[in-house]
Amino acid sequence: MSSLSGRGQRLVQSPPAAEYLREHFARSPAPHDPALRPDGYIPLCVAENKLMSDLLCPQLGRPRQVPARVLGYDAMIGSWQFREALAGFLPRFLGRAVRPEHLAVLAGAGSVLELLFHVIADPGDAVLVPTPSYAGFWPDLETRDELCIVPVHTSASTGFRLTPELLDSALKSAGRRVRALLFTSPDNPLGRVYSRPELEAVLSWAEHAGIHLVMDEIYALSVFGPQAFVSAASLRPALGERVHVVWAFSKDFAASGLRAGVLVSENAEVLAAVDGLAYWACCSGHTQLVLGEMLSDQAWVEGYVSTMRARLGSAQHAVTRALTASGIPFLPSEAGFFLLVDLRRFLDSPSWDAEARLWRRLVEGANVNLTPGSACRISEPGFMRLCFAAVPEHTATVAVDRLARVLGG
Amino acid sequence: MSSLSGRGQRLVQSPPAAEYLREHFARSPAPHDPALRPDGYIPLCVAENKLMSDLLCPQLGRPRQVPARVLGYDAMIGSWQFREALAGFLPRFLGRAVRPEHLAVLAGAGSVLELLFHVIADPGDAVLVPTPSYAGFWPDLETRDELCIVPVHTSASTGFRLTPELLDSALKSAGRRVRALLFTSPDNPLGRVYSRPELEAVLSWAEHAGIHLVMDEIYALSVFGPQAFVSAASLRPALGERVHVVWAFSKDFAASGLRAGVLVSENAEVLAAVDGLAYWACCSGHTQLVLGEMLSDQAWVEGYVSTMRARLGSAQHAVTRALTASGIPFLPSEAGFFLLVDLRRFLDSPSWDAEARLWRRLVEGANVNLTPGSACRISEPGFMRLCFAAVPEHTATVAVDRLARVLGG
């Protein structure tokens, strides 16, 4: 008899992490270094902003008075002090006041999504996710929560535009009880900032359908284009029972390793149910202290955000210039850490197998890892997500040169 | 239609946290203060060591160089650097060498238990837990993992001694597939240090039964009596496939709020399966850095551990002296943060209802919260766990005076 449970064996046989991520972890020990390892691995497949550590590390490392309460158990959904600091900070992008009692802090946005969907949907229930999409939603919702994501495919020919008709069609054809629509704004992987009318259409549709709308606004501050971010939280006088916002420090504060995610919800029952599970996904009290102090320094936050936007814009500009020079088509972005490259013309056939072969050829030939479009559930093969902020600006252009060499060869 | 899922509604209707914990959170905002609130709440129901913050807070708060890697994703089961630091530290109580690749770090011991049991047992499977027991095992194993704990009751008349016959009987009468025995050493709530022959009997029994033995050794260093701690990990040349050790910083480093728990296992499949779920229960990278640096300062660790033991011993002595003076019987302890008080003679009848009434009378009359024996699944009513390290030494004696007043009234 195996020493594992049935579900344990399934985790080993079919790990929740996709192949491109396992390849990432396998190659990470030998990264690119201009002097020491010029042919080293360049990971452009993980949505991290690696451009901000000079501002952030001193914040984490500076001396501070640590109160004894930080050592002990506190509220499982985050200390009141930290939620107060968040309530002072979040309005800058939510576009509305928020109360500490409407916040829950957990060990990262992944944990927030996992627990939120646990308490609003039962095993087998469906959740609508427009595509192209963040690849991680599938493990977040399907692995432990046992939900079924119904993708709402938009198509390249329309510029990946979501319409109410597409949502209607997905709702009708789901074949299961649909409990929620999960919508990401700014968009991942498109790097698009949605306008107020676009968000209004999504919110109205969800209200009419009578389902939860979970807004993933994790890139709210990471906007470098001219279009200003609008939060879905700002569209109504109140969030109500069925609109929830997910945010985290991982993207806008370039700190995925600190595991600090936030749920904004006015639904007291949802918060109570999440609280019941929060013990198994708690955020470190010390990390809460450090991040709370950081947020409370408004002048520092202002400087940080404007520097971040400038660096993201510069990095995006450098990589798009390199892509253009190399003849690799792409969809420009205005937010987030990434853009989609359009490699359809480099496929040997218009198939998912051909995309997988191309991805493999790029990772082996260029030692550059892109997120394959299949992981983002894009409606047609040949697109890949390129995270330009995951490495220094110069490294991203080295990666594009390598990709071009393999694609041209 | 409720905005919650069925499982979400169950979490709201039957919160995983027991009544005494909900009472604890309700009363915590008005704690005892000798000068400002002499009648304030005294929580002796949560196993925390509050006696060490003068040594620990400066460690957390001192300035340090934070490497950029701390900001980013790292291994979901803990950074290699932190696991190396742990591998250097853990042998001091495990009594054997341990390799970093046999360690997984998660957001607290609760998360370690929850994920470990997920991958070694399926919904409906049984796990044997000797009683008196840590109350939290029930939510840890039953809430998300959907396992069924089969208590192995020991009785007060034998000094709560576990025997192979009791284990045999529980295994036979379980009526379900039994996947594991979960054993706590040093004991919670008895505060007893198990001898090598006692551990050998438990390990041999589990080997013979062919089930996992999960050793909760979370109080390994918190020993203040003359009997030295022995780890079950030291009994065999190798841990093998079915012995796993759980440890954390919460007890021995008085830091339950930092959410850093450790799994020690030589079972590669168990570790791989846990890795597959670890993303939803990650330990903060910054907290890993801080704790890793702390462990690496061996002189500091030596001083910390000897001070901790002296303070625990002193606190236990103060509270047992007060209990004796007040005529409240108790079972002396030699490890952990607690002891059992024997309130059987104060029950108005030998029933669980009477115990609940007595607990309520104490919390309302004395504003002192003890862990009722029912939560520890003790085999007969009337015992309660008293955590003497959860408050300053003087406060614990104030609590005993208040308890004595209510019991005598």
Low-confidence stretches of chain A: none
Q: Please, how many domains of chain A?
A: 2
> What are the secondary-structure elements of chain A, in order, as H or E?
HHEHHHEHEHEHEHEEHEHHHEEHEEEH
Rounded to the nearest angstrom, the distance between the terminal CA atoms of chain A is 51 Å
The count of strands of chain A amounts to 13
Q: What secondary-structure arrangement, pairings included, does this model have?
A:
The structure is a homodimer of 409-residue chains.
Chain A: H1 6-13, H2 19-27, E1 42-43, H3 53-61, H4 80-89, H5 91-94, E2 103-106, H6 109-120, E3 126-131, H7 137-143, E4 148-153, H8 164-173, E5 178-184, H9 196-209, E6 212-216, E7 243-248, H10 249-252, E8 261-265, H11 268-278, H12 285-296, H13 298-326, E9 330-331, E10 338-342, H14 352-365, E11 368-369, E12 371-372, E13 383-387, H15 393-408
Parallel strand pairs in A: 1-11, 3-4, 3-5, 5-6, 6-7
Antiparallel strand pairs in A: 2-8, 7-8, 9-10, 10-13, 12-13
How would you characterize this protein structure?
Two copies of one chain form a homodimer. Chain A is an alpha/beta fold and 409 residues long. Chain A has two domains: 6-54 and 301-408, Aspartate Aminotransferase, domain 1 (Alpha-Beta Complex); 66-297, Aspartate Aminotransferase, domain 2. Helix content of chain A is 41%, strand content 14%. Chain A has helices at residues 6-13, 19-27, 53-61, 80-89, 91-94, 109-120, 137-143, 164-173, 196-209, 249-252, 268-278, 285-296, 298-326, 352-365, 393-408, and strands spanning 42-43, 103-106, 126-131, 148-153, 178-184, 212-216, 243-248, 261-265, 330-331, 338-342, 368-369, 371-372, 383-387. Chain A has a seven-stranded mixed sheet with strand order 2-8-7-6-5-3-4, sandwiched between helices. Chain A has a four-stranded antiparallel sheet with strand order 9-10-13-12. Chain A has a two-stranded parallel sheet with strand order 1-11. In chain A, helix 7 links the parallel strand 3 and strand 4 (148-153). The longest helix of chain A is centred in the last third of the chain and has 29 residues, at 298-326. Chain A is globular, with a radius of gyration of 21 Å. The relative contact order of chain A is 0.17. At the A-B interface, helix 1, helix 3, helix 6, helix 7 and helix 11 of A face helix 1, helix 3, helix 6, helix 7 and helix 11 of B.
